[in-house]
Design brief:
- By secondary structure, the protein is of the alpha/beta class.
- The protein has two domains: about 170 residues, Peroxisomal Thiolase, Chain A, domain 1; about 140 residues, Peroxisomal Thiolase, Chain A, domain 1 (3-Layer(aba) Sandwich), CATH 3.40.47.10.
- The chain contains ten helices and 13 strands.
- The strands form four sheets. It has a five-stranded mixed beta sheet, sandwiched between helices. The chain has a four-stranded mixed beta sheet with strand order 8-13-12-11, with helices on both faces.
- Strand 4, helix 4 and strand 5 form a beta-alpha-beta unit.
- The longest helix is centred in the C-terminal third of the chain and has 22 residues.
- The chain is globular, with a radius of gyration of 19 Å.
């Protein structure tokens, strides 16, 4: 029998960062035709955080990363890989992850961006997990950071009420397959035929400007429930588990209606779902790590728990991750 070590990754630290500025539903109702009741009933959102003029996706990401590194009880100099999930980079290039690398004073390893919108964190987690499994990285920083307020049409009540800014991060450490704590599996999917249901109508190659977010809400809802649920079943089957084995479900925080519909479809108890959309709104790639950070620091998630992550974003992209904490 071979003595070759089989590498796995485990989460050893979590961190989050939210801008100070809060915009409530009542404040939005002063600028667009909406109301607190209308937004709450349809989305479950009460408020959202908005970055100030001096804040960027990288500056939010640096703060979340510092908090995750502190929680992991390691040094930033231990990090040899940074994968940033974002749809709102500081610049077209270079990768915003390199700005975060610089801001953390890290000189070794490598850093790059992943763009899968709201599924981005799960995509980034898969890439970092694979690097560790291949023995190429020892400590990886996986970040979701967004300044979605910069790509919103603030006159469009169907989209501007849904999103917020923020950043979340986790630290992965290399371990072996005998470790009780590890990422069990990741499952990623995409289908570009639906790209026109959720997109930004700008870009350097098409319009020479940033553009604004556009969305077919009804279409996104239908596909989100279907695709997120199917990816969850795939993750459970791959690990010979059932929904009853899940201790905590941490979904992408799109809106309460999608979360409730997915919960009904997969048959998970409501008290097992981590929900932060009411306070954070939809922070795209940042939503899952922000929710993880809150759950860990509130002592919801503990060592040995089976944690399920799932998301869908523009593209469409979607996926799930199963973790033994």
């Amino acid at each position: 029998m071979s003595d070759e070590k089989i590498f796995r990754s485990k989460i050893i630290g979590v961190g989050g960062y939210l801008p100070d500025k809060i915009i409530t539903n009542d404040e939005l109702s002063k600028t667009v035709e909406t109301s607190d009741e209308w937004i709450k009933e349809r989305t479950g959102i009460l408020e959202r955080r908005i970055a100030n003029e001096s804040e960027t996706t990288s500056s939010l990401g640096i703060q979340a990363a510092k908090n995750a590194i502190k929680n992991a009880e390691i040094s930033s100099q231990d990090i040899d890989l940074i994968v940033l999930a974002t749809a709102t980079p500081d610049n077209t290039f270079p990768a915003t992850a390199t700005s975060i690398q610089s801001g953390l004073g890290i000189k070794k390893g490598y850093a790059y961006d992943v763009q899968a919108v709201c599924s981005g964190f799960i995509y980034a987690l898969e890439l970092a997990d694979n690097s560790i499994r291949l023995g190429k990285s020892n400590y990886a920083l996986v970040i979701g950071s967004e300044t979605f307020s910069r790509i919103l049409d603030w006159n469009d009540r169907s989209t501007c009420v849904l999103f917020g800014d923020g950043s979340g991060a986790v630290v992965l450490k290399s371990t072996d397959n005998k470790s009780s704590s590890q990422i069990l599996s990741n499952h990623l999917y995409s289908d570009g035929d639906y790209k026109d249901m959720l997109y930004v109508d700008g870009g350097p190659s098409t319009s020479n400007n940033v553009g604004f977010l556009r969305m077919d809400g009804g279409g996104v809802f239908k596909h989100a429930v279907k695709n997120i649920s199917s990816s969850i079943i795939e993750a459970l089957n791959a690990n010979k588990m059932s929904i009853e084995d899940i201790d905590w479900f941490v979904p992408h925080q799109a809106n309460s209606r999608i979360l409730e519909a997915v919960a009904r479809k997969i048959g998970i108890e409501k008290d097992k779902i981590i929900i932060t959309v009411d306070k954070h709104a939809n922070t795209s790639a940042a939503s899952i790590p922000l929710a993880l950070n809150e759950a860990v620091h509130n002592n919801n998630i503990n060592k040995g728990d089976i944690v399920l992550l799932a998301a869908m974003g523009g593209g469409f992209t979607w996926g799930s991750s199963l973790i033994r904490w």
